[in-house]
């Protein structure tokens, strides 16, 4: 035995206790120790049953994800599960915390399962681009039936213990020490003469409409392979003998293991955790934050206030006048009503948040005691600097002063105060109480504990916080401008906005860029074009037709008309758009050409990767993974591609560079390759190498 699994006997029961913190992942050493534990129990003359339990916060969180992509080492997990199930001893699993993936598969190989009331179980492999690979797709349906198994496996959700018991996955839910409860269960089973009960010997599940289920899951996954493939694996459990079903599961698992999607999903898993892990903040304590001020209660301010309230913070919101204050309170109430209706909030808490925790005022003096303020007033430097001068006058020393500006220079805003080192950007995304991304934008003069406070606030609000330096648009909006420009150029040259949207939803985006513009409001980009016009380089190609739409008051969804027409739930391309586009092409002397969906995707992605590489090269983003997480959590980038720079690595950095160089032959102003892209290609390195390098 290694120290990964402790062995002890209690009467006729041998206890195998996993000790692989933090979550008892099934590394090779753990698998081997479990095998040896089973051998030892079977060789132990007095032992008639085995209890498997986990130390620490979880039973088992699954296979060790860090081992994926490396040569597999024996004993393999499916063999371990088969060995446990085939044991002549009675095997009981006692589950607490989470039992996920291979962890649940180990439990399904036991003959009886007992769980703590707060335990959660699941087969989340689809979120890693995989399917369960150690019998989960064959054993689960034998306990729950095919329909429930398909739902649990394709959603990858964590199922609470009581529901798992109702579904037949767990035999009993009982509170207590997991080992004590499990021992009592095993001893009672032995006393009652209970027989071994291998799930593999249970009847196969009844069939369901497999093709319809497959099609439905495939559509929902927007191109993600693993959930749909999981349906086929469950189908095998209904149609094949157990051993053949296992072989089918193994084949699909191994095929998926070799896909880019698996690499993309696992990159996302680790990056999501690494993104807020900044070496410079390792020993910096954040400032305490319990009371938050929000300035402006429009779209963003109301969302930010909602998010803060839901995180248990008290909020003082300042608006310009009584009518605006009432509107702000109504917006927040609407957001909280939504949370109540979705079951995220009890009526009592809803009322307490709106009653005691929220104060909406018109006087800045009410901010005297807040620990942190987030300004979300109009995107106008004069308005913002006036607000910051007020904040400087009323806020207590040490309060963090943050702005939610999308584009403006935060250093300039900070300079309006006597305490620029306490000023930071906290850039939320709309709707702010829903979207997970938070860009923590750090001007040069900001002190580290203010940065740490931004990250701590993000964590408390359940956000994925990403550090960004100051530049026009920070990480996300600056990249968006680049890929959006590539899309606009394709429209001028011959593609339709609708072809572009379709090609990009095929790529896996939730929406194409033109549908996104309609949702955000075309007036936002219009205002930005006007802002940038005076400093624009004459070589830049900017279409005029979107301005014409805006001049006609067509701002997208909110006016019912934009790139698309919105009428009582129906969405159709707006025919006026192509009339305007064709007129502009004629005016510019452009002979339109066709763009295949593949070319659309490659150009769009090349623009995204190129700008992202510039952002990393300039140090605006610390690491490529920071950019990847911004796009994933703020811009609907498909998780199964991992992020734009992971996608670039999977294509080959040199391939993406070659695309850019090809496009540069038509327009060498827009398509200037990022120096970092050239450097990586020349050195035969990839973006992920920079994620692994120590931060400076
Ligand atoms: N393998 C390796 N490391 C793991 C892991 C796993 N399965 N699960 C979690 N970890 C690591 C995390 O990377 C993190 O490491 P860090 O501290 O160095 O950043 C640490 O454990 C703690 O994880 P979290 O920060 O995520 O802690 P939480 O409490 O928020 O969440 C969790 C715990 C719910 C277990 C979450 O980590 C999780 O969802 N893990 C993945 C579970 C999973 O997908 N299991 C299936 C694996 S695939 C499989 O089993 C294949 C089989 O069918 C053959
Ligand atoms: P909005 O127009 O919906 O709301 C602005 C609010 O600020 C209004 O309610 C207004 O009454 C109030 N206000 C103006 N001056 C004020 C003052 N001096 N004191 C107190 N309140 C004042 O604008 P929105 O969309 O909420 O944007 C706010 C900020 O957030 C802008 O800087 C914007 O760039 C940024 N942002 C917007 C996003 C979006 O999708 N709308 C996304 C991310 C950031």
Automatic annotation (TrEMBL):
Do the record's keywords include Signal?
no
Report the locations given in the UniProt record: Peroxisome
Which keywords, in A-to-Z order, does the entry hold? Fatty acid metabolism, Isomerase, Lipid degradation, Lipid metabolism, Lyase, Multifunctional enzyme, NAD, Oxidoreductase, Peroxisome
Query: Which reactions are catalysed by this chain?
Result: a (3S)-3-hydroxyacyl-CoA + NAD(+) = a 3-oxoacyl-CoA + NADH + H(+)
According to UniProt, this protein's pathway is: Lipid metabolism; fatty acid beta-oxidation
Specify the 3-hydroxyacyl-CoA dehydrogenase NAD binding domain's residue ranges. Answer: 292-467
CDD domains from the xrefs?
A: crotonase-like
Domain 3-hydroxyacyl-CoA dehydrogenase C-terminal: start-end pairs: 473-566, 602-685
Q: Which family does it belong to?
A: Belongs to the enoyl-CoA hydratase/isomerase family. In the N-terminal section; belongs to the enoyl-CoA hydratase/isomerase family.
Q: What is the protein named? A: 3-hydroxyacyl-CoA dehydrogenase NAD-binding domain-containing protein
The organism is Roseobacter sinensis
């Amino acid at each position: 035995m290694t120290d990964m699994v402790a062995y002890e006997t209690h009467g006729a029961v041998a206890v195998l206790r996993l000790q692989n913190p933090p979550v008892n992942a099934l590394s090779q050493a753990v698998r081997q120790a479990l095998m040896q534990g089973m051998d030892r129990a079977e060789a132990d003359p007095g032992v008639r049953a085995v209890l498997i339990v986990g130390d620490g916060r979880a039973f088992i969180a699954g296979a060790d994800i860090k081992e994926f992509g490396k040569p597999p080492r024996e004993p393999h997990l499916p063999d371990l599960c088969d060995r446990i199930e085939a044991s002549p001893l009675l095997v009981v699993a006692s589950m607490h915390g989470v039992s996920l993936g291979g962890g649940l598969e180990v439990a399904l190989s036991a003959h009886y399962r007992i769980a703590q009331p707060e335990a959660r179980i699941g087969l989340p492999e689809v979120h890693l681009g995989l399917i369960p690979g150690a019998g989960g797709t064959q054993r689960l349906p034998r306990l729950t039936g095919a329909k429930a198994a398909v739902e649990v496996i394709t959603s990858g959700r964590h199922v609470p213990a009581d529901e798992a018991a109702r579904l037949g996955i767990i035999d009993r839910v009982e509170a207590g020490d997991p080992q004590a409860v499990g021992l009592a269960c095993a001893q009672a089973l032995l006393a009652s003469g209970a027989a071994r009960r291998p799930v593999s010997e249970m009847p196969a599940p009844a069939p369901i409409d497999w093709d319809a289920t497959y099609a439905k899951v495939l559509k929902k996954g927007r191109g993600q392979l693993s959930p749909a493939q999981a349906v086929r694996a469950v189908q095998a459990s209904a149609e094949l003998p157990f051993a053949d079903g296992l072989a089918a599961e193994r084949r699909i698992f191994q095929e998926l293991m070799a896909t880019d999607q698996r690499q993309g999903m696992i990159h996302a898993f680790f990056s999501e955790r690494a993104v807020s892990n900044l070496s410079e903040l390792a020993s910096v304590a954040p400032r305490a934050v319990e009371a938050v001020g929000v300035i402006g209660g429009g779209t963003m301010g109301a969302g930010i206030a909602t998010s803060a309230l839901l995180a248990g913070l008290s909020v003082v919101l300042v608006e310009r006048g009584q009518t605006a204050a009432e509107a702000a309170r109504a917006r927040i109430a609407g957001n909280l009503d939504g949370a109540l209706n979705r079951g995220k909030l009890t009526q009592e808490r809803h009322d307490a948040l709106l009653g005691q925790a929220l104060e909406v005022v018109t006087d800045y003096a009410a901010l005297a005691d807040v620990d942190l303020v987030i300004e979300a007033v109009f995107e106008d430097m004069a308005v913002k600097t006036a607000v910051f001068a007020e904040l400087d006058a009323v806020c207590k020393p040490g309060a963090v002063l943050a702005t939610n500006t999308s584009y403006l220079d935060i250093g300039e805003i900070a300079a309006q105060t006597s305490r620029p080192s306490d000023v930071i950007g906290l850039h939320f995304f709309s709707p702010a109480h829903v979207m997970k991304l938070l860009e923590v934008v750090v001007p040069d003069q900001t002190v580290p504990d203010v940065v740490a406070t931004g990250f701590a606030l993000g964590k408390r609000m359940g956000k994925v916080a990403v550090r960004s330096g100051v530049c026009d648009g920070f990480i996300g909006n600056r990249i968006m401008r680049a890929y959006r420009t590539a899309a606009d150029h394709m429209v001028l040259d011959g593609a339709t906005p609708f072809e572009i949207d379709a090609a990009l939803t095929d790529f896996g985006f939730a929406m194409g860029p033109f549908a996104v513009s309609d949702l955000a409001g075309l007036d936002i980009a219009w205002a930005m074009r006007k802002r940038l016009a005076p400093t624009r380089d004459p070589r830049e190609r900017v279409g005029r037709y979107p301005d014409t739409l805006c001049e006609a008051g067509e701002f997208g969804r909110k006016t019912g008309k934009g790139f698309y027409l919105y009428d009582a739930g129906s969405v159709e391309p707006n025919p006026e758009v192509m009339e305007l586009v064709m007129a502009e092409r004629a005016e510019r002397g452009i002979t339109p050409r066709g763009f295949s969906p593949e070319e659309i995707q490659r150009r769009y992605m090349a623009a995204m990767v190129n700008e992202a590489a510039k952002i990393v090269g300039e140090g605006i983003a610390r690491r490529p993974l920071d950019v990847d997480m911004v796009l994933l959590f703020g811009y609907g980038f498909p998780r199964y591609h991992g992020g734009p720079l992971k996608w670039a690595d999977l294509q080959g950095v040199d391939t993406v560079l070659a695309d850019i160089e090809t496009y540069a032959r038509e327009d060498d102003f827009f398509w200037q390759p990022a120096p970092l892209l050239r450097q990586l290609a020349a050195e035969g390195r990839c973006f992920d190498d920079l994620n692994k390098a120590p931060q400076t």
